[in-house]
Amino acid sequence: MNKYDNKLLELEPAAAWTDAFPIGNGRLGAMVFGGTSSERIQLNEDSIWFGGKKGSGRKLSKDKLSEIRSLLQSGNLREAEKQAMLHMTNTPHYFSPYQPLGDLVIQFENMDDPEQYERSLDLTNAVATVDYQIKDVRFRREVIASAVHQAIIIKLTASEEQQFNLMARLSRRPFEGIVETLDEHTLIMKGQCGPDGIEYASVLKAVIEGGSCKAVGNYLDIEGATSVMFILTAQTSFRQTNPPQAALEEANSCAALLYEQLKQAHIADYEALYQRVSLEIPYSNREGMQQIATSQRLKQYQNGAVDTGLELLFYQYGRYLLISSSRNGSLPANLQGIWNESFTPPWESDFHLNINLQMNYWIAETGNLAECHTPLFDLMERMVENGKETARDLYGADGFVAHSVTNIWAETDIFTAWAPAIYWPTGGAWLSLHMWEHYRYSGDIAFLQKRAYPVLKQAVLFFQDFLMENNKRQLVSGPSVSPENTYIAPSGQKGSLCIGPSMDSQVIYSLLEAATKAAALLNEDSELVEQWLSMQERLPKPQIGKYGQIMEWSEDYDEAEPGHRHISHLFALYPGEQIVPRHMPELAQAARTTLERRLSFGGGHTGWSQAWIANFWARLGDSEKAYTSIRQLLEHAVHRNLFGDHPPFQIDANFGGASAIHEMLLQSHGDELQFLPALPKAWPSGKVSGLRARGGFTINLEWDKEKLQKAQITATKDGQVSIFSHEQLVFKVGDETLQAQICKKSDVYSFQMKENECCTITLIP
Ligand code: FUC
């Protein structure tokens, strides 16, 4: 691998926040601007949210619920929505946002005219660097966010001694709390995020070599130092009883170590995750391209240039961002991961449950980062507690419900006043499927028993009470919405609130599939399982409408916005598995028509929407359309630092785009593996290693001239492998060719593998 592979590179300091490079350890995040006379490192800590809990436990009477349902059934949408807005929404409407921790500002003397300036973010070791020269002196800055030592570390070095004269300060404008000096090398910034809000403390400590350091007023004043290491820690009352003490202890333990020790520990920890997957696709002028600033490459790409390297970088950047924003013990990646510079960020920078939070985790399992999925599960378990109350209060139902948004407090009430989104009772159900997926990829039965099944069961229990019978004797959800679209009823009335949106039926179908299988594996709840299976039977199945499309609602309504960004009714195609294209050609065709129709009306205009579309095309096996979607995503929906753009910055597109690249190379839904199922002409040869597949398999692939050359499957547990392929395949374990062991039926090869066994697959020439 070339030294510039998997690196973001710029030849100037960041002018805007979305030019800066993100680093993070899951809990602490920073944006490194790389200025020479003044460096700004914008800081985040994942639990800094304004204010406290806002859920009011709003209660809805049984009569009101029936009234809203009847209004919907009789087509009086306006009145139904009015009653829902009056009686179901939380008071107050909005919860408070995720906010920045502040800024670390370093003002350097005599560093105005740098030469040979370069800043980079190396995805292979998660080190951000700034290099430049002034006169004959080389300067280097390295910035890391260490998960091991729970600190952001900045190391300044130069090729000559005593080069550093600088002042460093912490600020949180315009909500500055208290800044105090603790000793000549240490500052602390403390405050509270509003009345009853989270209390925070951040410590800045300087460890210098040569020269002097004094703490004066708001500053650490450093003169004549040969090298400087800044240690930045932060803690809040969300996790600590004494945040200042906790932050200081962490800073002190870092200060007892050398920078090299901190750096090596960070790299070892990070590499253990990152290096599990490597993806290489040869492309022309590779060395040359990699010397060009990333933003310049992006510009060329946006003007039509071919740059496979940028696509590869985007894939690994997705993995980098997940490792940096979602680690054991942290909160899950929110709408901006962990990186947010605004005190009033878009959508509160919260957790949106009608696509965005789920999309953030689409590469967790496939990209061999299953540990990074854990923060989501931690949040969900807290949501179940709140969601049981919400289920009871609003719907008189058992089990747990979550709607379209949640926050640091795992609240599940109906927040915000945006009718097309908020009355959606399926957020918790969709999230529960992530736990089932974690089991499917790992085979971890203890996880299934202790964590996944209890959540799945509570999600099902809710729908068991909540679903109602429609006039076709089917079980449907309602009131609900098809996120966040509006339909036109036969009367001409427009509305969002409805009974039985297709997405709900599809998510509930998948939920029941997961819960019944999990219960069987655990040998639990056999009576309930009987009921759940008959519930599943009675759910409406995907239907084809008048345009040949998958119907979005239970009736074949027209949509008010046919190019709408949400394509919720294709959940069954991706990430769901109710539509398996190769077994269901008619539904696959209808899914294709749905996508074409959305796109012809201007769909795919937000980053995450385009990313979802790319995943749909990959599932449909349409390699060229999937590739076009990836191109569109990079051309229209990423910032100069490759952050996804809604607009504004929203991180889901990074993860969703990376997921689509995975789905183009490997699929494992519907109980079978498929290698290179949507390989585009633009990637004729290449190799990938370390991808994960359902069933507990790690997959390496090599291909040439658009054809598989070799695949390797390593089983992380005993189990059956099924591979769908039109090719004649040869299977070997060690030197032994498997022949008798292989069963082949309609292009599906099946055989048993043992834990740690590695099987090599080639084509009969
Ligand atoms: C959903 C989307 C919006 C945006 C928001 C955060 O509501 O419809 O496009 O991504 O989440």
List keywords for this structure.
765 residues, alpha+beta, 9-stranded antiparallel sheet, 7-stranded antiparallel sheet, 19 helices, 35 strands, globular, binds alpha-L-fucopyranose
Distance between the termini: 29 Å
Bound molecules: alpha-L-fucopyranose
Give the structural class.
alpha+beta
The radius of gyration over CA amounts to 27 Å
The share of residues in helices is 25-40%
Provide the fold topology.
Layout: E1 7-10, E2 21-24, E3 28-32, E4 38-45, H1 62-73, H2 77-88, E5 102-108, E6 115-122, E7 127-134, E8 137-146, E9 151-158, E10 164-171, E11 178-183, E12 186-192, E13 199-209, E14 212-216, E15 219-225, E16 227-236, H3 243-255, H4 259-274, E17 278-280, H5 286-289, H6 294-302, H7 308-325, E18 351-352, H8 356-360, H9 362-366, H10 374-395, E19 405-406, H11 419-422, H12 427-442, H13 445-466, E20 468-469, E21 475-476, E22 487-488, E23 494-495, H14 502-522, H15 526-537, E24 558-559, H16 585-600, H17 607-619, H18 623-636, H19 652-665, E25 666-667, E26 674-675, E27 686-693, E28 697-704, E29 707-715, E30 719-724, E31 729-733, E32 736-738, E33 743-745, E34 748-753, E35 758-763
Antiparallel strand pairs: 1-6, 2-3, 3-4, 4-5, 5-10, 6-7, 7-8, 8-9, 9-16, 10-15, 11-12, 12-13, 13-16, 14-15, 17-27, 18-19, 20-21, 22-23, 22-24, 25-26, 27-28, 28-29, 29-35, 30-34, 31-32, 31-35, 33-34
Alpha-L-fucopyranose binds at residues 335, 347, 352, 356, 421, 484, 565-566, 606, 608, 646, 650.
